[in-house]
Amino acid sequence: MTEFTPIASFIGGALIGLSAVLLLALEGRIAGISGIASRLFPPTDSHFQERLAFILGLVLSPALVEAVTGEPVLQAVSSNYPLLVVAGLLVGFGAVLGGGCTSGHGVCGLSRLSPRSIVATLVFMLTAFVTVYIVRHVIGG
Amino acid sequence: MPVIVNLLLGLLFGVGLIVSGMANPAKVLNFLDVFGTWDPSLAFVMGGAVLVAFIGFRFVLARGRPVFDTAFHLPTKRDIDNPLVLGAALFGIGWGLGGFCPGPAFASLGVGATGTYVFVPAMLVGMWAARRVGR
C-alpha cells in the first residue's frame, strides 16, 4: 500500500507543469524527457549542453529536496534486475519510437490538445494498466 | 545563460516529480493497480501538471517567440501512425513492469536505489536503438 496524497501530488504536478511552461517560454522547447535524453546521443545537436543541463537538474533534484526538508527521499524500486532491464529497454525504445513519454505526450501534448499525444497517452495508460493487472493478478495472483 | 536556465528547470521538474510521488515506482505501480492496492494520487499529478501547462502554454505561445530563441520548436508531426501506437504500447508495458518512466528514472539516480542503476542504462540502450531504427 502507498498513502493517498492528493494535495502533495497536485502541487508536485503543478511544479512539473510550471517547469514545462517556463521551458517553452524561455527556450521555446517542449519538456519531453525522452526527447531531451535521447537527443543527447549522438551529441551532435546544437542544444546538447542545454539538454544535458536539464537532465543534470533532474539528477540533482533529490539532493535539493533533502536539503530543504531535512528528510531522505523515500522510494521503493524493484530488486528484480532482469525485470528492470526488460522494463528499461521497453521504456526507452517505446518512448523514442512513439515520439514521447509521460511528460512529452502526457503533460505537454495533452495540454496542447495534440491528437497524437491524446492517442499515445491512452495507449500507454492502457498497456500499463493491463501489464500491472497481469503481473499482479494473473501471474502473481 | 540557457545552460543555467535548463539546469534550474530540470531541478524544478525533478522537485515536482519527487513532491508528487511520481519518483516512487511503488506509488506508480499502485496507481496502475486499479483492481488491487489502488492509489489514485497520480491522477492528481496529471491534473496539476496539465492544468498549469494548459493555461501557461496559451499565454506563452501568444507572445510569438521564446525569450532565448527566435522561434518555438513544436512537434510538427500530425498523423497517427504505427510507430506512435506501437511505441506507446511498448512504453506502457515497460512502465507497468518497472514503475519507472524516463523523468523519474533520471531523478532517482540521485536517490541511489540499485534498481535505478540497472533500469537507466537499459533505458538509454533502448532509446539509442530506437534512434538507430528511426534513421
From TrEMBL, chain A:
Topology with respect to the bilayer: Multi-pass membrane protein
First-listed, main subcellular location of the protein, grouped into a coarse class: membrane
Acetylation as UniProt keyword: no
Keyword Membrane belongs to the record: yes
Matching InterPro entries: Sulf_transp_TsuA/YedE
Single GO cellular component term: plasma membrane
Transmembrane region(s): 6-31, 52-69, 81-101, 113-135
Subcellular location per the Swiss-Prot or TrEMBL entry: Cell inner membrane
Similarity comment: Belongs to the TsuA/YedE (TC 9.B.102) family.
Protein name, as recorded: Sulphur transport domain-containing protein
From TrEMBL, chain B:
Tagged with keyword Transmembrane: yes
InterPro entries for the chain: DUF6691 (IPR046513)
Record Pfam families: DUF6691
Regions crossing the membrane: 41-61, 82-100, 106-130
Keywords tagged on the record: Membrane, Transmembrane, Transmembrane helix
Record protein name field: YeeE/YedE family protein
Organism: Pseudochelatococcus contaminans
